[in-house]
Amino acid sequence: MASASPSVASTQPTLPSGPAVFKTVPYAFILPEILCGTWVWILIAATSVSFPLLQGWVMYVSLSSCLISLLLLISYLFGFHKNSENWKVLDSLYHGATAILYMSAAVLQANATIRSELGPNSPLYYQLNSAASFFAFITTFLYILHAFSIYYQ
After folding, report:
1. Residue 11, SS3?
2. 8 Å CB contact between 109 and 64
3. pTM, to two decimals
4. pLDDT category of residue 6 using cuts at 50, 70 and 90
5. Domain MARVEL: where (predicted)?
6. How far apart are CA 153 and CA 34, in angstroms?
7. Is residue 84 part of a domain?
């Protein structure tokens, strides 16, 4: 006697590949993270890195995060993940750690902004540093959103 059992569909969400990456939360945050992070290091580079110790760390965090996020975006676009659950863990750990690093960088950039207010090129460098601080905090927020929204899929 053959029993007919209904096929059970997998309830695990699939990881996006191709253009679907840009339509799926949290993966849609990757491109804004890259763009805002790029603005951070461009704006700091425009100030001639007035405070090397502070802004050197900010440049390192923003540039390395942009490059790693770009590699992650490319790997999602080309489907290198092969729908493995390990990619979710990797993605969450990377974005969580980067959010912490970016928070430290954003605070240091805010400190550099305050210190540049009374510098020799004060109006221009202050405005550039203010914009860099703004984008650093926005980028931090995007990384935090990405890291936490993986759990709510």
Report:
1. coil
2. no
3. 0.85
4. low
5. 21-153
6. 22
7. yes
Is 21 in contact with 90 (CB distance < 8 Å)?
no
What residues contact 53, with CB distance under 8 A and at least 6 apart?
none
Domain with 70 in it: 21-152
- Could you tell me the sign of the dihedral formed by the alpha carbons of 47, 49, 51, 56, in that order? positive
Task: Write down the pLDDT at residue 97.
Answer: 97
Determine the straight-line distance between the first and last CA of the chain, rounded to whole angstroms. 41
Residue 11, pLDDT score: 54
Tokens of 73: 């975006």
**pLDDT classification of 114: cutoffs 50, 70, 90:** very high
The owner of tokens 């210190």 is 115
Residue 2 lies in a domain: no
Cα 129 to the chain's mean position, in Å? 20
Domains contained in the chain, number:
1
Task: List, in sequence order, every beta strand (DSSP E) within the chain.
Answer: none
Q: Is residue 81 part of a domain?
A: yes
Other C-beta atoms closer than 10 Å to the C-beta of 71 total 11
Residue type at 33 in one-letter notation: E
